[in-house]
Automatic annotation (TrEMBL):
The gene is murA. This is UDP-N-acetylglucosamine 1-carboxyvinyltransferase. Phosphoenolpyruvate binds at residues 22-23. PANTHER family: UDP-N-ACETYLGLUCOSAMINE 1-CARBOXYVINYLTRANSFERASE (PTHR43783:SF1). Belongs to the EPSP synthase family. MurA subfamily. The modification 2-(S-cysteinyl)pyruvic acid O-phosphothioketal is found at residue 118. Gene3D superfamilies: Enolpyruvate transferase domain (3.65.10.10).
Amino acid sequence: MAKYVISEGVPLRGSVRVDGAKNAVLPIIAASLLSESKSIIEEVPDLNDVRIMCDLLRCLGTDVQKQSDPTTISFETKEITNSTAPYELVNKLRASFLVMGPMLARTGYVRVALPGGCPIGSRPVDLHLKGFSALGAEITQGHGYIEARKNKKLVGNKIYLDFPSVGATENIMMAAVMAEGQTIIENAANEPEIVDLASYLNEMGAIVVGAGTDTIRIEGVTSMKGCTHTVIPDRIEAGTFMIAAAITNGEVRIENVVPDHLKPVVAKLKETGLEISEELSAITVKSIGGLKPIDVKTLPYPGFPTDMQAQVTSMLSCIPGTSMVIETIFENRFMHISELKRMGANIKIDGRTAVIEGKPCLTGACVKATDLRAGAALVLAGLAAEGATEISEIQHIDRGYSGFAEKLKSLGAKITRVED
Ligand code: EPU
């Protein structure tokens, strides 16, 4: 297993370009199953999760082709040749459950392995299934698989989500685009990734309005076509580099961002005293030290993203004074904290609240990435620590950050990837 070795912390300086958004491209790839024609997706990040999603589509009958520009991939599903998303793939990538909606819409039958729990929480799929049932699908479960089947047709309906789940909103949108009549999703998630999926679906011929608000209306169409779509920039990768600049007392210009998507992150980081300036598609973060502690609570968009919670916790561990972080989205997303403590952080956890007594500096240590964002948080801590840090199990980080070490090195970080 590969690891990262950071020999010492230094201020990061320079500019870095972020890739297309992982959490936007995964549902978009799944949505390609809705049409027989070819779709071309641009700004696809080079990530393990994307490779698994491509493997899953191949297994269902899609011709997946990399174009001359490696960030452009075409998807063409002339025919669905297999209705089962197998456990081996769903187990590796929970987002593969997102093929359920488009498969149901396209062929009327799909069988998907039930995704298990995952390190950050139990992550049930009840809201996805509630939506499919409301559209008239019959859902059965057994032997570790969920089957969804439409009797004659799917029919639009009003669906209220008990929680604005990102995945459920996406899956139901994809199932509903070819249902008869109108579907209304209430208390829908309004993350930028939902808006990007809606744009893609509309480019494919769907009629989806209201994405980005909590009420999404979908007027069913009879067929979908191929199109060319460019994926939005990854706001979490951008936010991670913002913290890399802050935690190292550096100055970094982050390019290919939509500043509006980072509003909650910018607002909270400014509260610490960081200098942040925004351009049309870039953000510059500058720290001259003397930052102040803050309180952060994760919430559905436009609240502070849970996918930035671990990274901000690393940063607050290095700001003297008392900060508080409350995680409201996932029940078990504090696993980075025991590793941060190995680096000298002083953090107490009480349920979903972490109370951080920040110190001027953490100390390098051997630590382990337990999931994607926890891993990113440990890299950030290592970039600011005194002495060397070794981060193992970095396959988790590879799921969501492409060329992470190279990008950090280009900003001056003393980081090396060591393949065991
Ligand atoms: N939930 C239910 N029932 C459901 C669906 C969700 O109770 O049917 C609960 C979950 O257990 C969780 C909460 O609702 O407590 C939020 O889950 P949500 O469905 O919104 O998350 P997701 O779609 O599974 C996506 C991202 C996550 C990100 C969350 C929240 C993708 C592929 N994944 O997951 O990204 O944390 O939204 O914003 O889009 C990451 O990138 O590191 C990551 C984990």
